[in-house]
Backbone:
């Protein structure tokens, strides 16, 4: 028998597939439960944007046709929103697709990418798949007063060497929920060698209201090496459709577009994204629900004596003060799916997505029972 693993492309050997949150259906099938809740994948607990959902349904009669490969209408709308020209935008099947485009364009055996410990799990996957090296910068320490486990930009800069082609930064970061200020991030961009591409991953930006929180788009003219990515998977509630985008200099967009799969964003996804951009009422509701939920969960964890990483995202990562795998399993048995983050290097933590007020109550109650037993 042929051992195909000896014939794979460089990097595939060391690759471990991404571990997604457990699907509700699977848990219900396995444990014979019903009424389970899933607060594991940072999905919008209020469902999809109604405008987005309706627009997707309206085009279902046309799905025998290929989608518009240029994504003309969605790009035009995004351009109008951001003040960019449409040729400075690339669309992806989720923003992870755009992140992968950057990796496949710039990374190869012999080069490396820099990112922080405890950052998005797709960065090492795409880097390794491209055959490149991961250079992981140590994060801020757990006892850091403001941003425990957050990105340490000095340590990240120190990891950059002559073979670095890409730096990945999530702001706010997943799975920590920590964030970088305008001043700090701008200083980092200024110091970085001009040929190093920076992916500024803004998947959760719409949830953040901090005054000193940066908008990467403001820096695109000054930094031709900057790629800002955003997604419709989080606050827009369209994770199942897979649509996101990247914004950068014309030159970067043209380069990464060379490896983009044709028709990478589906017809319903394009329609839904375009409509969801206008769904102000839904976005406001989602933002409000999240702010209330963060406060509800945060103060309950405080009352339970559970340390949690201060988050501005739509999730909170909590220290279980024990191996979190056991707690995760016991929560599953109670029909509550949260996210273990051992694969992110945080074996004692669980990441809990902000749900509706009722869902938050339910996860808190289940957690109290599990920890008391
Ligand atoms: C959820 C998430 C994304 C977006 O993923 P999609 O591919 O757009 O669904 C990107 N980056 C981070 C850090 C995320 O948590």
Residues:
């Amino acid at each position: 028998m042929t051992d195909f693993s000896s014939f794979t492309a460089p990097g595939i050997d060391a690759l471990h597939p991404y571990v997604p949150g457990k699907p509700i259906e699977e848990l219900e099938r396995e444990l014979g439960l019903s009424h389970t809740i899933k607060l594991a994948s940072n999905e919008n607990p209020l469902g999809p944007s109604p405008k987005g959902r309706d627009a997707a349904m309206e085009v279902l009669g046309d799905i025998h046709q290929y989608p518009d490969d240029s994504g003309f209408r969605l790009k035009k709308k995004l351009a109008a929103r951001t003040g960019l020209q449409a040729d400075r935008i690339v669309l992806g099947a989720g923003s992870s697709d755009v992140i992968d485009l950057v990796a496949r364009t710039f990374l190869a055996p012999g080069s490396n990418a820099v990112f922080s410990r405890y950052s998005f799990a797709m960065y090492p996957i795409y880097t390794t798949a491209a055959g490149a090296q991961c250079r992981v910068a140590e994060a801020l320490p757990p006892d850091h007063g403001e941003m425990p486990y957050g990105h340490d930009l000095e340590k990240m800069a120190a990891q950059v060497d002559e073979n670095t082609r890409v730096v990945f930064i999530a702001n706010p970061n997943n799975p920590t929920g920590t964030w970088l200020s305008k001043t700090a991030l701008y200083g980092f961009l200024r110091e970085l060698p001009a040929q190093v591409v920076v992916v500024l991953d803004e998947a959760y930006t719409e949830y953040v209201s901090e005054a000193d929180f940066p908008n990467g788009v403001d820096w695109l003219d000054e930094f031709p090496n900057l790629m800002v990515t955003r997604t419709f998977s989080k606050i827009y509630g369209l994770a199942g459709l897979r649509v996101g985008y990247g914004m950068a200099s014309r030159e970067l967009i043209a380069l990464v577009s060379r490896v983009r799969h044709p028709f990478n964003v589906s017809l319903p996804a394009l329609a839904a994204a375009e409509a969801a951009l206008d769904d102000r009422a839904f976005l406001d509701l989602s933002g409000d629900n999240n702010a209330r939920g963060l406060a509800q969960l945060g103060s309950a964890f405080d009352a339970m004596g559970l340390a949690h990483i201060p988050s501005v995202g739509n999730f909170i990562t909590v220290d279980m003060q024990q191996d979190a795998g056991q707690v995760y399993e016991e929560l599953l048995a109670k029909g509550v799916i949260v996210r273990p983050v051992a694969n992110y290097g945080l074996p004692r933590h669980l990441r809990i997505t902000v749900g509706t007020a009722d869902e938050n109550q339910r996860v808190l109650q289940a957690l109290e029972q599990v920890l008391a037993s």
